[in-house]
Design a protein that fits this description.
The chain has 294 residues and is an alpha+beta fold. Helix content is 28%, strand content 22%. It has 5 helices and 15 strands. Strands 1, 2, 4 and 5 form a 4-stranded antiparallel beta sheet that branches.
Length: 294
Amino acid sequence: MYDGEPELGRNDDCWCGSGKKYKKCHLDFDERLQALADAGEDVPHRYLLKTPQDIEGIKRSAEVNIGVLDYVAENIREGITTQDIDKWVYDYTVEHGAIPAPLDYEGFPKSVCTSVNEVVCHGIPSPDEVLRSGDIINVDCSTILDGYYSDSSRMFCIGDVSPEMQELVRVTKEAVEEGLKAVKPWGHLGDIGAVVNAYAKDHGYSVVREFGGHGIGLEFHEDPFVSFTTKAGTGPILVPGLMFTIEPMINMGKARIDMSDPNGWTVRTKDGKPTAQWEVQIVVTDEGYQLISW
């Protein structure tokens, strides 16, 4: 097969674990994938495609992830520290039998990313960082439950936020919604990035090129990389079962970023202007997509 895996006989058990014979399960599906690969398309390896059992497990993880962000939404306010948010996330996650995925991931020291104002991503919670009226903050939460991964983030406006920053937050969320409309089974991943980028630019903003979405589910970060500066009709095929995040980072100013923070993690806008990000996790289906975490 195109992905280097052995070809199965018609009466062999299907590779997906359904227990059905291959001819009754994924034979026609695989023949379609092979034809696309033969035509020069970028087709995801079958190990990236989530089975119904995988999806149910990932949904259970996402229930915790969504619950964490709901808890943050209920409690976030002026005067708290980003360290307070980290404690909320850790305590809620552990109390629900799960693990915060960022904690100790490649050395990241906290349970959540808290990115305030000009911080593009990977802000590290601190007892010295106090939320003040006028701030915007992205809280990026990721959860492991029974070996399954979920990931989503939300923006929060603290106190009296300027109309310009409120507009940035709103348009960024709308850009994600536009991206979701572009998810079509057997379409291209690049279609999503193209519409997100166009929507942001139409509103006078720029899109970060270096960071984007990613595959997820059985690992924290899987293929494919989901860019939001792509052209329509390019990139991997959106095969049913493919799971990934849509999480554009949209800047009020220029797209250039600054990665020079001594902590090795925190990324800022080069010009110091505000940035926003919303993140959702989806799986491609035969009909379109299913929202997994938000």
